[in-house]
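Incident review: delayed structure delivery

Summary: a single-chain prediction request sat in the queue longer than the usual turnaround. Root cause was a stuck worker, restarted by the on-call engineer. No data loss occurred. The affected request and its eventual output are reproduced below so the record is complete for anyone auditing the incident later.

Affected input:
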Amino acid sequence: MTTLEIILSCSNITLVFVLGISVFYNIRHGLWIIRTTESIEKALDILDERYSAISKVLEVPLFFDSPQIRSVVEDIKTCRDSLLESATILADVPQDDDEEKTDN
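Output delivered after worker restart:
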């Protein structure tokens, strides 16, 4: 074997080793991303259920005209809106260009 063959063999072994490490970490991070995505989807499902439940409660008319009751209802409305905003941020829903064109 010549010196060039030895150097090429060593570099091939090194590259295969580095490739193995790269594949290991790519799979590890890919699985982490999948777990994180599933967790976010579960959280969005829970937020959607809570949003629906709060919306149903807010549809019922109020029969007691107390400032405290009105304040609580406004707080619930604020919480409902913040749930929707949080879900939108987590989902990162981009607006379609078609929707923007029809709004104009």
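Verification: The CA atoms of residues 43 and 57 lie 21 Å apart.
Action items: add queue-age alerting; document worker restart procedure.
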